Amino acid sequence: MAKITVKGTEVNVVTVNGEEYICLTDMLHAKDGDFFITDWLRNRNTLEYIGIWEKVYNPHFNYGEFAIIRNQSGLNSFKISVKEFVARTKAISLQAKAGRYGGTYAHKDIAFEFAMWISPEFKVYIVKEFQRLKAEEQRLIGWSAKRELSKINYRIHTDAIKQNLIPAEVTKAQASIIYANEADVLNVAMFGMTAKQWREANPELKGNIRDYASVNELICLSNMESLNAVFIEQGISQSERLIKLNQIAIHQMTVLENDDNKRKLLK
Question: What is the model's pTM?
Answer without folding.
Answer: 0.52
